[in-house]
């Protein structure tokens, strides 16, 4: 990656800038209490988090709908925990989760600092698989919406990362080319391999402490981006 050639940076949102796990935990703490679901939050999250990741992969791979994802990730969690929760409560929890989640606005350490550093030098954009109705609220409520020129959402494009069409659509919107573009994200499959398959440069934010990979630059703190851009 030649720094002088780069004009456009494309960020993932959840797990990259916006601290999804922290904000999600706070949301569940609120809504489980509202609906009087008696479960220890730590026990709930221990089961829910991997189930949610599994269903998101199915959704990303076009194997399930958004509605199935929202319902089944909760339904399977309660089944695993052997807690009886009515269908109507699960539906209400799934709706409340989407409504409440964007109210929490914790970002990863140094997110604002790195965006402030990068914005004068490059055009910044978002490419997200998250639900369209909440992603804009996340950006606005966390105070980072003003950094970005284009917000590319999989629901509006019609395909999800790692489908090459969403990256090509994003570059078309930004009037950039693969050699001018860098994708920065946490998910090795969706963000890094997806972007590399269309010729983009990549920076992998190893927020999950995964095993080292050979796919270009890896960072463990957002400020490390300064070493490359």
Summarize the structure.
By secondary structure, the chain is α/β, with parallel strands linked by helices. The chain contains nine helices and six strands; from the N terminus they run βαααααβαβααβαββ.
Architecture overview:
The protein folds into two domains: 3-18 and 106-227, Rossmann fold (3-Layer(aba) Sandwich), CATH 3.40.50; 20-103, Putative phosphatase, domain 2 (DNA polymerase, domain 1, Orthogonal Bundle), CATH 1.10.150. Helix content is 47%, strand content 12%. It has nine helices and six strands; from the N terminus they run E-H-H-H-H-H-E-H-E-H-H-E-H-E-E. Helix 1 (20-34) crosses helix 4 (87-100), helix 2 packs antiparallel against helix 3 and helix 3 crosses helix 4. The model has no long low-confidence stretch (mean pLDDT 95). This is 5'-nucleotidase.
């Amino acid at each position: 990656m030649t720094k002088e050639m780069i004009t456009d940076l494309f960020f993932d949102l959840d797990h990259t800038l916006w601290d999804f796990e922290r904000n999600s935990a706070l949301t569940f703490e609120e809504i489980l209490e509202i609906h009087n679901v008696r479960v220890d939050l730590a026990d709930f999250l221990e089961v829910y988090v991997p189930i949610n990741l599994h269903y998101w992969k199915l959704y990303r791979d076009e194997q399930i709908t958004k509605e199935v994802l929202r319902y089944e990730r909760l339904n399977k969690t309660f089944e695993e925990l052997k807690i009886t929760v009515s269908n109507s409560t699960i539906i209400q929890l799934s709706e409340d989760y989407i409504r409440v989640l964007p109210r929490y606005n914790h970002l990863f350490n140094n997110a604002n600092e790195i965006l402030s550093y990068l914005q004068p030098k490059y055009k910044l954009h978002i490419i997200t698989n998250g639900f369209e109705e909440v992603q804009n609220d996340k950006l606005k409520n966390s105070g980072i919406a003003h950094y970005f020129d284009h917000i590319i959402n999989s629901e509006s494009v019609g395909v999800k990362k790692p489908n090459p069409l969403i990256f090509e659509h994003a570059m078309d919107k930004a009037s950039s080319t693969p050699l001018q573009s860098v994708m920065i994200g946490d998910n090795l499959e969706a963000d890094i391999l997806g972007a590399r398959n269309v010729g983009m440069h990549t920076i992998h934010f190893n927020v999950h402490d995964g095993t080292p990979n050979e796919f270009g630059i890896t960072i463990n703190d957002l400020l490390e981006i300064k070493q490359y851009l």
